[in-house]
């Protein structure tokens, strides 16, 4: 098998999407985390937009854009995660096209810098949730997007449903409670081992550190960790 290197920032959801596909296909890969504020020259030379993820194959090919990486892996390594039926495949691709809109709708509250921005962002979340709820209803019974078979759609949404869950742990809004299909899908994805690149508690700490560093509005609701002596 080829040699795979996934270049990453530890908390990047787009990297997580590529890592999920690698794990679902049981592909051995080197996971190399670099610092966003100190991107090495070798990385800048292989990443046209200076962004992660980059999937480096056999030290010679560099693929970028998480969707392109996921599609490439699906075309080259079994099991096939895209549905065999062309209509279903088109439906799946249409919903992976919606991921960037869903991502910004669902995680914008983590970027808001003041209460007004936060409230506006929170008010937008049900719009994105409603779209997915209706899509899931059409797709059938779950637990995954296409039913029993795990797909690239699942790998694409899992990182953002995880971030929504982490934001809810800081300041609950209960938004997902009104969307039972989406909630069940999220629960199934968050319970699946391939979703996680790090132990959940460790990753939640990293995510919270990012919010604190950014001084997002929501960061003030993060409870201070207990002193070890307590
Ligand atoms: N559309 C890209 C998005 C990748 C992306 O935005 N990566 C972020 C980290 S999560 C990045 O590298 N940002 C660095 C920058 O914008 O300079 C994908 O799906 O791979």
Describe it for me?
The chain is an alpha+beta fold. The protein folds into two domains: 4-76, Glutaredoxin (3-Layer(aba) Sandwich), CATH 3.40.30.10; 86-217, Up-down Bundle (Glutathione S-transferase Yfyf (Class Pi), Chain A, domain 2), CATH 1.20.1050. It contains nine helices and four strands, in the order βαβαββααααααα. It has a four-stranded mixed β-sheet, covered by helices on one side. The protein is globular, with a radius of gyration of 18 Å. The protein binds glutathione. Glutathione binds next to helix 3.
Poorly predicted segments: 226-230
The strands making up the biggest β-sheet line up spatially as 2-1-3-4
SSE string: EHEHEEHHHHHHH
The CATH C-level name of the largest domain is: Mainly Alpha
Distance between the termini: 50 Å
What CATH architecture of the largest domain would you give?
Answer: Up-down Bundle
**Portion in helices:** 40-55%
User: How many domain regions?
Assistant: 2
In DSSP terms (H or I, runs of 4 or more residues), the helix count works out at: 9
Task: Report the biggest beta sheet as strand number plus sense, adding barrel if it closes.
Answer: 4 strands, mixed
Total DSSP E strands: 4
Structural class: alpha+beta
Average of pLDDT: 96
The distinct bound ligands, ions and cofactors come out as: glutathione
The best one-word shape is: globular
CATH topology of the largest domain: Glutathione S-transferase Yfyf (Class Pi), Chain A, domain 2
State which percent range the strand residues make up.
5-15%
Q: How much is the radius of gyration in Å?
A: 18 Å
